[in-house]
Design goal:
This protein is an all-alpha fold. About 65% of the residues lie in helices and about 0% in strands. α11 packs antiparallel against α12, α12 runs antiparallel to α13 and α12 runs parallel beside α14. The protein is globular, with a radius of gyration of 18 Å.
Length: about 220
Amino acid sequence: MATPADLIPELRRQLECVAQSDRAAVMAAYMKHRAEFLGVPAAERKRVSRPFIAAGRTATSDQLLDAADICWAQPEREFQYAAIDLLRRWHTTLLPQSLPRIESLIRERSWWDTVDAIAANVVGPLVARFPELVDVMDAWVDDSDLWIARASVLHQLTFAGDTDAERLFSAVDRRCGDEDFFMRKACGWALRQYARHDPDAVRAFVTDRGDRLSGLTRREALRRL
């Protein structure tokens, strides 16, 4: 039975068939030219990648990640998006020992588009299923790699009422002094998402921290309150 990696040549053929060169330049510019693009709209990418995603049904965790690694080696960003779609769809196949390989995906070719999707839809569900990985997330918060730290701050985005608020607030406390836009934005986004469940706790946290939080973080956190 074909693995997802086996289908990557066909995935390329299908993506190239629906690629729009005029869109490629626009997409690259939107991403600050951090990557090349074929120019495939998201809906079309998802349509033509269905066989690739479906092949993950019988794949092992290593086979899923092998496919992701191959996609990560492709120059065009659509392949990284397809790999994330694959891991997101079959995230229940992933195991605690998968995390170092997922971490490598975050560290390589890093930008918010891939990092945020991996954090919320791959890392987060994995940590939810295997709580022993919480210690790894706590270590990631202090990582010198901005994107690893951002992934840790954001990994509880989909947890809603299961969010560990103490850990979330601790992560924001530890990174709130960062001057980097992406870290300040991540802190505010994570707080805003949790505010949907417990707005009073987020208001109290932001008020208590005062000027320790950047204006961007505060605005993001309180945007819908």
